[in-house]
Amino acid sequence: MQTNFKGKYKERVGRQLKVVRPDATDDDVERLLQDGGDSNIFKQQLLQERSTQAAKNALADIQDKHRDIIRLEQSIVELHQLFVDMAVLVETQGEMLDQIEYSVQQAHQYVDRGVKQLEKAKESQKKSRKRMCCLLCCFIIILFIVIGVVFGGLKGAKIV
């Protein structure tokens, strides 16, 4: 009876071991029986599965964090590129502003020169008008003298 019990017990432990570890051999069953660890098979497997599940969960968490870090890195690279583009735009617009400022200064100088030339032209025009008035007055005086001489000479010729 004891042999029968040992045989059934061995079969049961073998089946349990095959459930837990499908690749287990008869030698593994014998070793397990000699160590007296039959009741611990499922406990050990359960603990292993728990630690395996915990490891899988930890791995999944690590992979999620890794993906987040990769996305963060990509965002930082994009942000860096935006700052580089912004710097290029600022530099380009700075050069453009410098060119505009130079053009405004040149235009201001041209306007100043133009104002001075207009003032000179205005003075020249005043002088020219004065000359024309003087010449016109001289011409009128000469005309009156000529008319006076011509008519004075004609009057004297009639009297005689």
From TrEMBL:
Family membership? Belongs to the syntaxin family.
Q: Give compartment(s).
A: Membrane
Q: Which InterPro entries match?
A: SNARE, Syntaxin, Syntaxin/epimorphin_CS, T_SNARE_dom
Identify the taxonomic lineage of the organism of origin: Eukaryota, Cryptophyceae, Pyrenomonadales, Geminigeraceae, Guillardia
The record's annotation in PANTHER family points to: PROTEIN SSO1-RELATED (PTHR19957:SF307), SYNTAXIN (PTHR19957)
Q: Which residues cross the membrane?
A: 132-154
Q: What is this protein called?
A: t-SNARE coiled-coil homology domain-containing protein
The record describes its membrane topology as:
Single-pass type IV membrane protein
